[in-house]
Amino acid sequence: MNSHKTYTVDEAQAKLEHYCAYQERCHKEVRQKLRDMNMIPEAIDLIIVHLIQHNFLNEERFAKAFVRGKFRIKKWGKNRLRRELKFREISKYTIDAALNEIDLEDYYATLDALVQKRIAQVKAPNDYKKKKKVADYLLYRGWESHLIYERLKEALNG
Fold this sequence. Notes:
This protein is mostly helical. The chain has helices spanning 9-22, 27-36, 41-53, 59-74, 78-87, 92-99, 104-121, 127-140, 145-157.
């Protein structure tokens, strides 16, 4: 017995308009949502074209909002942001445009603040171990290694 709700193209289209209006979405998320609704590939393509034409779906707008939010709230570095956008199948051009939205002064100030905060949190017997723990933390969050080591050197030796 099949208990899955079925949708007409119009119903699915209306549902996806709300889905996209609520929060910026990428094409991959929308396509997956439509697959989860058991829509056939032709209907999926038709709905996605409608959403793009009516400006519910815009990958550049999604990428910029994603970068702004994750940088400001989660304090992710450019490497992590790039990796996450690639995972969502965003084009290299769009990823670069979104990452260029980050103000470099804010970027460096955020990194400095993270370095200072993490150094204060890490309890390690010597500077080498402390440096490694702080670097691992920042690398995981996608900050560039050359920037991390430069900031750590200044903070711990300067």
